[in-house]
Amino acid sequence: MKPQLNPRYQSYVLSCMDDIPQLGRLSEARRLAMRALAHVLPFRTNSYVIDELIDWNNIPDDPIFRLTFPQPEMLEPADLARVSSLVRAGAAAQHIRAIADRIRLTLNPHPAGQLEHNVPRLDGTPLPGVQHKYKETVLFFPRRGQTCHAYCTYCFRWAQFVGMEGLKFAQRETETFHKYLRRHTEVTDVLFTGGDPLVMRAWHLRAYIEPLLGPKYEHIRHIRIGSKALAFWPYKFVTDPDADTLLRLFECVVASGRHLALMAHFTHPRELDTPIVRRAIERIRSTGAVIRTQAPLVRHINDSANTWAEMWRKQVQLGLVPYYMFVERDTGPKNYFEVPLADAHDIFRRAFRQVSGLARTVRGPSMSATPGKVVVLGTQEVKGEKVFILSFLRGRHREWVGRPFFARFDPHATWLDQLKPAFGERQFFFEEHADQEPPHVAACE
Q1: What totals of helices (H) and strands (E) does the chain contain, helices first?
Q2: CA pair distance 385, 7, nearest whole angstrom
Q3: Residue 178's CB: how many other CB atoms inside 10 A?
């Protein structure tokens, strides 16, 4: 299909999934399973993804199709069968939702201690929608940014989108957020995240960012925006009504002397191929903003060294900076998407050696676990024992950063909490402090 020159955003959710004509290529049984799964895990896509990114001659195996449309294998067979039978029978929506909610609570909706450990306080009151895990960096979840142009099926923040009470993580009060930052001058980096902050109109985003450019926030040196918009709706930066306003905001941030980084999520090299995404990249870079790229390694979508090498090469060619390869988080349909740590490191290493030094800015495979960002450096035999060599890229306690440690090799382990200390040690060094808040969190009181 020929791309439109000035398209209007058109989304597709569960209620209109059957309006997507290309799904007629699938069997009725598979379409039923997809509808059932979309009652449990979030589903949202759009016309750009459907018309320009998916190869409909290769479904259901096409990687972008697997990235954006629910796959039956994402749920346990018994759970899928139960929801499918209710959907097939035309059960009441509240009945389906009650079953879906029970299933969701078994899927670890908030991994890595997001609700228990990372929420700071202001004058003794918790700040929902703010996370302060590392001393220098605060994450902010703006209320209007708690959706995306399309949802990734592997999304570790799926709980933001399903509407269950107590699972959504968002901040309504801008002034409270700004007050917290004024008090915490140790913070140098603010990351706007979600959902996707760039689903917001530019003037809403400006209300959060513009005050940070003033004299009361001289300690804020770096502003980051985590977004999948470049991959799923690049028109946001080119032809949307507020595209120019958004880019002027970017220019203002750079002119203030701050570093502006768009943390762009690209999961597959095909997302970099359309003329509109390349034009969007040009316009963003012209503002002085830097685009850094990151994505998880996910089975069925990008679990190939050649795929990652191709993606990094394209990113560097377009002026982007490869930043992270993540390990798929231990949440949601992880059993369908996860890759063992040993395989993840092998894929990373084989991709890394295919690219030039310009692409070797990338770090990984990295786990954003409860104690911090842990990178798998490799495997080795030490003292007759095969081990993983790991290190902290970021840690809840700063003295952990850069400290290597060893875990027994386990070919099946997919996450940090499945690893055991090597050499007969009783526990990892960071487990001794598992119940202690780091100093900057304690100070938030």
Answers
A1: 14, 15
A2: 59
A3: 17
CA distance linking residue 398 with residue 390, whole number of Å:
16
Neighbours of 174 (CB within 10 A): 15
d(CA 292, CA 319): 9
Q: What pLDDT shows up at residue 17?
A: 92
> Phi, psi at residue 63, to the nearest 5°?
-65, -35
List, run by run, the mean pLDDT of 10-residue segments along the chain (445 residues): 70 92 94 93 94 96 96 92 93 91 81 63 85 92 89 78 53 78 96 93 94 95 98 98 98 98 98 98 98 96 98 98 94 88 98 97 95 96 94 93 96 96 93 64 46
Select from 436, 426, 419, 308 the least CA-distant residue to 374.
Answer: 419
Residue 14 neighbours by CB under 8 Å, 6+ apart = 35, 38, 39, 43
Q: Where along the chain do its domains lie?
A: 11-104, 121-442
Closest CA to 64 of 272, 237, 236, 282: 272
pTM of the model: 0.91
Domain 121-442 is of which CATH architecture?
A: Alpha-Beta Barrel (3.20)
Helix (H) or strand (E) holding 343: helix 341-352
